[in-house]
Amino acid sequence: MKQICYPDNFSTDGRRASFFLAVEEVVARRYAAVSDDDYFFLWQVPPTVVGGRNLWLDVEMDLDYCRSHGIDVIRRRSGGGAIYADMNNVMFGYVTGGDEVVTTFARFTSMVAELLRSLGLDASSTTRNDVLISGRKVSGCAFLHVPGANIAHGTMLYDTDAAAMRAALTPSRAKLLSKGVTSVESRVTTIRRELPGLSLEEFKRLTIERLTDGKLFLTDDDMADVLATQKRYHEPQWEAPRRGRHAGAPSTRKRIEGVGQFDIAVATGADGLITGVTLGGDFFTTGPLQPVLDSLCGLPRTREAIAAALPDPAPVAGLTREALAELIADNS
């Protein structure tokens, strides 16, 4: 696996999370999709909350707190929940070719767990998206498929500002209880806590040494593509919290173990037919979701009518077409 490296004349100091997410996309398009090599890199950012593509951001994080405390807020293109990052933790990025995104994701989380076990830690990966040390979360991961390639990435909590993380992230009580905890802080651990003699720089060095065996040097042309790709992360429609997309539509929240949390808003007209559907949450998608939801407009809000209109398989990881239809049709 090759380490992704930047041109000598290019500095990444102070770059936002959107920059590094754009690096992953460019490497996926320009390299992984047309080669047999895998690619990996580490990155760090000033205090930032990164939310999954489907999240209603104002539900999962305290946006006022983030603004008043200088915490950047970025929506990534992969699914999953919200994570807090700062210069005391490390982000992992993994890019590989192919179309088997679920297999790639499992390989990535297993690779991260194996790295931690090589350091003497009792690490394991969950069936969904977490890496644990002795049952406590140390890394949350997500995936994204682009044509011909897959991206898997995650945060590694070497250390963190627990107070800022606790204030910035506001997951539902149901989500916390599903993990057997009552607060964000009680659910996580850190590398520094588990290995107090290992410095952050040494951890980074060992990670690169044990996971990579070569280098990919990005070109000036690659970096121009990265900066152009980064701009898409800051388009107003992409950055928007998303809740209330269909004005006046009541929302309900449901959690499906092993799949994720869903915030569901369905608008209907006076005739009872669907006029708009929005799904928010920390679930993962395997393909475009909103165009599928938009195709339900004009249908009655019944499980049978919705299921008949949905593609098979459904574009939500872990859900059958019928299960997705039931979520949308359920009024309770």
How would you characterize the overall build of this protein?
With 332 residues, the protein is an alpha+beta fold. The protein folds into 2 domains: 238 residues, 2-Layer Sandwich (BirA Bifunctional Protein, domain 2), CATH 3.30.930; 79 residues, 2-Layer Sandwich (Enolase-like, domain 1). 33% of the residues lie in helices and 24% in strands. The chain has 14 helices and 14 strands. The strands form 3 sheets. Strands 7-8-9-10-6-2-1-11 form an 8-stranded mixed sheet, with helices on both faces. Strands 4-3-5 form a 3-stranded mixed sheet. Strands 12-13-14 form a 3-stranded antiparallel sheet. A hairpin with a 2-residue loop joins β9 and β10. The longest helix has 18 residues. It is globular and about 65 Å long. About 2% of the residues have low confidence.
Task: State the main characteristics.
332 residues; alpha+beta; 2 domains; 33% helix
Provide mean pLDDT, rounded: 90
Spans of at least 5 consecutive residues with low confidence: 176-183
- Here the CATH topology of the largest domain equals BirA Bifunctional Protein, domain 2
* Widest sheet: strand ordering: 7-8-9-10-6-2-1-11
Number of domains: 2
Q: Please state the second-level CATH architecture of the largest domain.
A: 2-Layer Sandwich
Order of helices and strands: EHEEHHEEEHEEEEHHHHHEHHEEEHHH
Number of helices: 14
- Alpha carbon gap, first and last residue: 49 Å
Structural class: alpha+beta
- Using the alpha-carbon principal axes, give the shape: globular
Rounded to an integer in angstroms, the radius of gyration calculated over CA atoms is: 20 Å
Strand content: 15-25%
CATH class of the largest domain: Alpha Beta
Main sheet attributes: strand count, strand direction, barrel closure: 8 strands, mixed
Superfamily (CATH H level) name of the largest domain: Bira Bifunctional Protein, Domain 2
Question: Got a strand count?
Answer: 14
Helix content: 25-40%
